[in-house]
Design a protein that fits this description.
Helix content: 25-40%
Number of strands: 5
Radius of gyration: 15 Å
Distance between the termini: 20 Å
């Protein structure tokens, strides 16, 4: 796998990293069991930190993410966030423990939303996940 994209920009788009079925089923069970909590960061959205299912899946993905980045990585934490139509997360910098993040889109109800990211040279990019 070519790491040049990641080295140049600080991010890389990897299509079909996962099969979303198990993720979606688990998210539905979290929602039904009321384990997702209202987000303080973004009204109308829900989140959950360090869920065991996603934590284990993250560890399984670690070798593949290392191949895409060319960096030996260490797990720090797992965070899931469910956005609703009309949500807009304000521009921000993630904390140092998010130095390397994996964003996985599990789908959308209407049209896809763009995700904004700054590259290593502070140039903005709008990406449809």
């Amino acid at each position: 796998m070519d790491v040049k994209d990641f080295e140049k920009t600080g991010f890389k788009i990897v299509k079909k990293l996962i099969e979303p079925g198990a993720f979606l089923a688990h998210c539905e069970s979290l929602e039904k069991s009321k384990k997702l909590t209202k987000s303080n960061e973004l009204p109308g959205s829900q989140s959950l930190r360090n869920d065991p299912f996603f934590h284990d899946y993250m560890l399984d993905l670690l070798p593949e993410i290392e191949e895409h980045t060319g960096i030996k990585l260490h797990k720090s934490y797992c965070f899931i966030h469910s956005y609703s139509e009309g949500n807009m997360l304000k521009s921000h910098y993630d904390r140092p423990s998010c130095e390397i993040s994996v964003l996985i889109s599990l789908g959308h109800s209407n049209k896809p939303w763009p995700f904004g990211i700054m590259d290593k040279n502070e140039h903005p990019h709008s990406i449809i996940l």
